[in-house]
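Dissemination and training. As part of the outreach component of the grant, students in the summer workshop were shown how a complex can be specified as a set of sequence lines and then modelled as a single object. The example used during the hands-on session is reproduced here so that future cohorts can follow it. Participants entered these lines:
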Amino acid sequence: MRLTVIGTGYLGATHAACMAELGHEVLGVDVDPDKVAALRAGRVPFHEPGLPELIAKHTASGRLRFTTSYEEAGGFGDVHFVCVGTPQLKDSEGADLIYVDAAFAAIAGHAAPDALLVGKSTVPVGTAGRLADACVPEVAWNPEFLREGFAVEDTLRPDRLVFGVRSTRAETILREVYAPVLAAGTPVVTADFPTAELVKTAANAFLATKISFINAMAEVCEVAGGDVTKLSEALGHDDRIGSRFLRSGVGFGGGCLPKDIRAFAHRADELGVSLAFLREVDAINMRRRDRVVELARELCGGDVLGARITVLGAAFKPDSDDIRDSPALNVAARLRLDGADVTVHDPAAMDNARKAFPLLGYAMTAEDALRGADLVLHLTEWPQFRAIDPEWARSLVRRPRIVDGRGALDVERWTAAGWRFSALGRPALNGEG
Ligand code: NAD
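and obtained this result:
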C-alpha cells in the first residue's frame, strides 16, 4: 500500500519506518524542513535504538521518502496517518490541538475524497468525531502505545491495536495496513471514536496512577520509618497488583504522561465528570522532585550554595534523548537556582539539555562529571549508571554522598564502598562519607 505519515517526530518517524518495514511505500511529511532534510539524509534527529538502521535501510531501498509538501502527500497515497504533537496549552491543563487541526485541514484539502485519514496523536475524547464531521475524506483513530526506547519493537510487535472507526470500510483498510502485525496474532479492539480515544488516555492515566501510588507510599515510609523498596517487592508478588510500574523514584516525566493526565482531567471537567484524583497523581509526582531537592539540601548541611553537585541523567528516561518535562533536569535547574554548581551527564541527551538549560554545567563523561563532587544525584536509570563501580566513583568525588532517585543502584555495594546512600522512601544508609 502507499501511505503517508504526517508529523515525523518521535512517533511519526518511527511509524513511517515501521510501515516501510511492513512492506508499504511510505512518504513522511513534516513542516520542519530541517527535520525532513535530516531524515532524507538517513539521519534521525533524536535517539531511538534501532530506528536509524531502519530509516537508512528503507530510504536506501526507496520505500521510504520524506517531504514538506502536502500537495505531494495528497497525491501519494490513500491512507494518511496523522502523528503531529498535542502539547499542553500554555495557559491551561488542556491539550493544544492547533497542530492536529492544521494537519487534518491540510491533508483533507489535498487527499482524494475516498482517502482514509487516520489520527494517531493522543487527543481529548471528542476530537476524532469533530474532525470527521468537518472533512470529506473518512476519518479513523488508531491511538499509539509505543514507549520511547522500545519504539521500533513496540510498533512492529505491539501488545494490541485499537481501531476507532465509523465504518467497516475503514476497519478493512486498517486491517490491510497492519496485516503482517495481525497475522502474528496481535489482538485488535475495534471501537467507536470516543472509546478508541479513551483507551489511550485511560492507559496513561492508569500507569501514572500506579507510579504515583507507590510514590505516595514512599512519602508515608519516609515519615513512618518504612522501606518502600521492600513494600513494593511484597506488593508486586500479588498478581492482582503486579510489580511493573511499582518502583518508587523521582517520578514520571516526558512528552506524554504529564500532559496527557492533565488534558484528561481537563476534558473530563468539560464533560461534567470529575477526575480530580488525576490532579493528586500529578501533585504526588511533582512532590518527588521537591523531595530530591530537599534531600540534596539536607546532605549538603542545609544549603546547597557553592556545593558541587553531579546529576547523572538528563533524559526523562533511559534509551531516549527526550528531555521534555524531565525530572532530572527539573531538579538540576532548581539546585542551580539555589546556588549549587551543578554538572549534568547523560549518555544521549546532552545536546538537548544544553539547548534547554544553557546555565547548567555539562560533562561529556561520567568520570568528568563525578570528579570533585560533593553530592551525586542518580536521576535517570541508564544501565551505564547502574554499572558504575562505587569504589572507582569514590576515588573521583570529594565527598561520597549519593541520592538514588531511581531506586536502581545496589545499596550494599555503594555503602560498602563508603558512600552515604540516600534513596526515596527508605532510610538513609551510611558508609563512611
Ligand atoms: P514530536 O513533537 O516529536 O513530533 C511532532 C512532529 O509534528 C514534529 O516533527 C513537528 O514538526 C510536526 N508537525 C507539527 N505540525 C505539523 C503539521 N501541520 N504538518 C506536519 N507536521 C507537523 O511529538 P511526538 O512525541 O512524536 O508525539 C506526537 C503525538 O503522538 C502526540 O500526540 C503524543 O502524545 C503522541 N504519542 C507520543 C508517543 C511518544 O512516545 N513520543 C507515544 C504515543 C503517543
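The pocket of nicotinamide-adenine-dinucleotide is lined by residues 6-12, 29-32, 35, 83-86, 99, 102-103, 106, 121-122, 144, 146, 148, 255-256 (CB under 6 Å). Students were then asked to discuss how this feature might be tested experimentally.
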